[in-house]
Amino acid sequence: MRPLPFVLGAAALLAVSAAAPAAADDSSSPSPFTIRDSRITESSGLAASRLHPGVYWTHNDSSDGPYVYAVDGRTGKTVARVTLRGIGDPRDVEAISIGPDGNVYVGDIGDNLGGQWSHVWIYRFPEPKRLKDTTVTATQFTVKYQGGPRNAEALMVHPRTGRVYIASKSDEDAGLYAGPTTLSPSGVNVFQRVSDLDLEVTDGAFSPDGTRLVLRGYFSAAEYRWRNGKPARLEKEPGLPLQRQGESVTFTPDGGTLMYGTEGPGSKVTPVDLGGELLPDATAKEQKKNGEYSDRVDGKLTDDDKNGNLVKAGLTFVGALVVFLGLRRLFRRSRPRD
User: What is the pTM of this model?
Assistant: First the structure.
């Protein structure tokens, strides 16, 4: 038998070589990207464009102004900055979503004072058909919550009904609130609580077909089946990459991938592919039709995730080998001699 150090060294070498970077096997899958615009220092929301494939809308958290940015998900470069006209000074912009009416909804809904502001706002403007720096007139909606002020960072527009939902952030009394069937630019729009949540929510998104809702926090994410205006949490959880400060999430237009974003300069956006019951109904049906359906929760992983899993597997192998050899040596010592 080889000396123990030699065996362990060989096992470690095997684990390291197994963790070598793997080549991407699907060039059509969304890729990770970094937001490179130096003006975007607090990306706090993310929405996949409906008109421009591969483009994502984002915005700063605060101290920026009435601006929304279109970022190319292939290069990370800004391809348009939209200035919102006809609204007040944004206070704490936290979320962005696109509705079935082709409008972009921006949620000025944050309240870092712990829910002390009497009202918050939603801004709405048509998604531009051409990507260029432009100024648009936005509609402003005043929002209050049933039960009093809340701090919130997630706003979602249902892609079928057009109804707007807000998830409050508190990890002690988080809830999902539904707006009126149609928002009114005059008066106050009262959002009614429709469900309790057990997650500190930093963003959320509906799937393109409206059958799934994803809510994310800093360290965990949850997915819900959406039926009759209510969420039912799925047992499986969507994968969540380890991020510096996870602030945003959106589905890709085909519904098969979640794009998770971070806050801060050089924000990184990481894709996680879905599988099994986490796939929206329309996406699962299309994948089955094309022979691409997977029962795995995460259909595909990034190279970093693949390498991390291989390293874990290698270390597990080494640990098991050490235990095996130790027991074998102990057994030999304890065996009676003739």
Answer: 0.80
